[in-house]
Amino acid sequence: MNIRVFLMTAVCVAVLCHPFANAGANSAREVEYPAVRAGQQVVVKLFGAGVGTLDSYGSGILISDDGHVLTVWNHLVNTGFLTAVVSDGRRFRANVVGTNQEHDVAVLKLAADDDDTFEFIDWKVTTDALPAESVLAFSNMFHVATGNEPVSVVHGVVACTVPLNAGLGRWTFPVKAPVYVLDAITNNSGAAGGLLTSSSGEPLGMLGREIRHRDTDMWVNYAVPLKNLQPAIAAILEGRRFGSTTVTDDLKSVLSDRQLTAGFGITLLPSIVEKTPAYIDRIILDSVADTAGLRRGDLVLMVGDDAILSADDLRVRLSGFRRGQPITVTVNRNDKLETIQLRAP
Fold first, then answer.
1. Which CATH number fits domain 29-244: 3.40.50.2000, 2.40.10.120, 1.10.150.320, 3.40.50.980?
2. Is the pTM of this model over 0.70?
3. Where are the beta strands (DSSP E) in 173-318?
């Protein structure tokens, strides 16, 4: 045997077999394994409709024993085709209870039977994380789990707690309160909406989206502290309005109803209430919309990769295109997603 290989093998055996090395490994296992098991039981795998480059899967956190789920307010929530798979493999349709734009949060409810119960976190009781504190991040990143397989766990530390100036494309991260910036790779496909805990299992926050810092253009690993989400969660569960959920006044109605009809050939349902969905009420014959294949009754869900949350959102988004630019519109038509290609008039 080569003497170098022999010596390296001997050193490795000595280290691994040393009583202090084993004691340390056993101690870490005793501290963190129950926390891992507990975290995996309260994180659900979400499956919906992927659009364009956006994924068709995500993560959520159970926050009640009857099946309320906390997650980010993203395209999965807006498409309306959500299925949740809990830790033991049971599958449920997930309905949207409410959303809050300023906190980038949504609350879902599993369509479960009265006798179904779930493990959950107490969102009303939270702990602050300190810089350099060891943390665990739970999520269904990369679509690894589809049934009763446990979700993935990433170990890391809290780097700092700061306000975050970040976004992706036209979308800007709306949360103004400080977030946990993490020294851990949590900025992964499907991880948004996952759970951040301390190494001993105390809930700390909700994992954020795949976004880049506006100043450095670097991907950001972050989580929103649960204590900052508490007011929004309480308001949604109680059916109250909390904060502003509308497009800012200076952006509203950039494209008027008359311009929308004259240019695109689209007439939307009247905006009777705040956040009226972008339902198409009428299509003008031989118009841009008619030629592209849009139909009366279509619900516009996305323009490009941007979620359309209301008729006002659609007017704002369509106003940003120049003549001849290609536009990809995703609609809900008879409970099926359809992608329509058209050009700006």
1. 2.40.10.120
2. no
3. 179-183, 195-198, 203-207, 211-213, 219-220, 222-225, 266-268, 280-283, 299-303, 306-307
